[in-house]
Amino acid sequence: MKLDKENKLTNDELEQVVGGSAYDLADDSRFLNSLNGSTGRYGAWKMHNSKDRLLIIENAWAKVGIGIICPDDPTYYDTKIQYVLIGDGSFKPITQEEARQHAMEVTGHYMKRSDWKW
Question: Which pTM value belongs to this model?
Answer without folding.
Answer: 0.76
